Amino acid sequence: MNISATIIVFNNAKIIGRTLKSLDFVDEIVVVDSYSTDGTDEICQRHGCQVFQNKFVGYGQQKNYAQSLCKNHWVLNIDSDEVVSPELKEEIIKLFKTGEPDIKLFKINRLTSFCGKWIKHGGWHPEYITRLGHRNYIKWTEPHVHEDLQLTSPGKIGTLHTKIMHYSFPSVKSQIDTNVKFARLGAKDLIKRKKRRPYFFEVLIRPMGKFVECYLVKLGILDGTSGLIIAINAAYSMFMKYAFAYMDDLND
After folding, report:
1. Together in a domain, 76 and 21
2. How far is CA 216 from CA 208, 211, 228, in A?
3. Which residue, 18, 200, 203, 239, is the most exposed by fewest CB within 10 angstroms?
4. What's the confidence (pLDDT) of residue 249?
């Protein structure tokens, strides 16, 4: 199949093999590494990937760079902690069986694991993310965090109904570490978007609203203890983002 896959990596030696094995149906795998020190690049090379080194300046920027290196028009982007399910593999093969589709960008449902449990509620599922597209018609946005793959001109976005499996958080600590990192990056985007620091009442109210949203409105309560922990962590992440922005504690 004339499809390229792209992955951006940094010190992902423990998990990258699982991701690469699920991409055995694509024509090439382009990996952009931010100078890993744990042998991630060597693992990718042994799997037949084309590996390029590039200084990390942002998630969207790194993914756009990876996309620019692909030899094929169609590109599937996968994160280093994600796996293409066998069902998704078959759906993509079927999509291209009779030639290239007219739709130039597709969203895919992602199912995320938290401490070994697949999470079905709380805003985590269903989670449709744009990941497969024709590179002449698509581009990643470039905020500090939560980049998005978009069409460069108005058009229809298709939907694939099988799943990307997201092995994101093997422990509570891993989620907390990620939340701290993303909250600081998100604070920069918050100030840029609002063109001001948040008001004090926002620092108080936004986290409470986030908990209610995740746990009650989006039914995180149905995921049991995991749903409660996720909702509390989401609220704390929101608090940190607004606190970082309010205190202007954003110097690297």
Report:
1. yes
2. 12, 8, 10
3. 200
4. 77
Last residue of a domain, one of 119, 136, 169: 169
Q: What is the pLDDT of residue 250?
A: 81
- Tokens 């697949």 — which residue? 118
- Give percent of the chain above pLDDT 70: 100
**What number of residues does the chain have?**
252
For the chain, give the percent of residues with pLDDT over 90: 97
Last residue of a domain, one of 135, 169, 203: 169
pTM of the model: 0.93
153 & 206 share domain: no
Q: How many structural domains does the chain have? A: 2
252 found inside a domain: no
Q: How far apart are CA 6 and CA 84, in angstroms?
A: 13
Res 1: pLDDT: 74
Distances (CA, A) of 191 to 187, 202, 247: 6, 13, 11
Q: What is the pLDDT of residue 252?
A: 62
The residues, any chain, with a CB within 8 Å of residue 25's CB and separated by 6 or more, are 1, 3, 89, 92, 93
Whether the CB-CB separation of 248 and 223 falls below 8 Å is answered with no
Q: Which of 29, 145, 134 is nearest to 78 (CA)?
A: 29
Residues 165 and 208 in one domain: no
Q: In 3D, which of 55, 82, 80, 50 has the Cα closest to residue 67?
A: 50
Where the chain has pLDDT below 70, the residues are 252
**Closest C-alpha among 189, 192, 234 to residue 214:** 234
Beta strands in the chain (DSSP E): 3-9, 28-33, 50-53, 74-77, 82-84, 105-114, 117-118, 128-134, 138-140, 149-151, 158-169
Report d(CA 111, CA 119) in Å as an integer.
7
Domain residues for the domain of 213 are: 172-247
